[in-house]
Fold this protein.
Amino acid sequence: MQEYLQCGRYRLALGKADRPLVMGILNITPDSFSDSGQFMPLEAALAHAEQMIAEGADMIDIGGESTRPGAPAVPLEEELRRLMPIVYALRDCGKPLSIDTYKPEVMREVLAAGADMINDINGFNAPGALSAVKDSDCGLCIMHMQRDPQTMQASPQYDDVLAEVTGYLLQRVENIHAAGIARGRMCIDPGFGFGKTLAHNLELLKNLEKMLQAVQLPLLAGMSRKSMIGAITGKPVEERMAGSVAAALMAAAHGARIVRVHDVAATVDALKVWQASRMDISAI
Ligand code: 7PM
């Protein structure tokens, strides 16, 4: 198994004995501030990023388009208008910047501005996505999604969710590699909640190591505050921190090397305790 992830200006160590890296979610879509209807002011976004870094985030994931189930697509110009000032303002923050986008034009712009990783919920399937990332040294997060954000949660169906998601990721990794992109730049993501029922999500979570065994690439897990946590706990989105932390720990225990979370401080604490409990006390 690959022990590092090449990520633009950074080569991230993902050692097996260590805890997973924590990717802090910086959401700049209007939905995250439902009362205003405005997108997040630049100062608020920067303050949030700095806070997550102070809390121990290893990388920052910036999303300019809501991928909430049923959400309408955001036009290219609007996505760039939201993202670019933040990318410029944060590029020297000392942590790798990941951009959550599936649009090749956005990939090109943010990479030219200094972004280190492209996190594509669409698995780099858009025409032009691979050529947009090829000539940089950026990291790629390759995620599985069934159908698209508008329709994915209507009635997700699989004969064998683990085999189908694993097979998809294996095939994408092969295609992306064949396009001339090194495996050392790639990580995979089962895409929790992206065209999956609770049963599908749990089947994937319980079997992450099988997926890792098959694909042999670092795995990123994103369950933070998602409806699967709400379905298990019966809690609304603003009360899902403890459930989300538990999910991040379980993903770590099943071999995830990066966890994508909103609640950085709580997750880092929990992962430190998890890590400490796995090793000799003299090593702390
Ligand atoms: C509204 C609802 C906004 C849901 C955003 C979301 C993942 C991701 C997202 C993930 C990777 C969220 C989602 N989820 N990228 N982007 N993996 N790689 O809950 O699971 O954060 S967006």
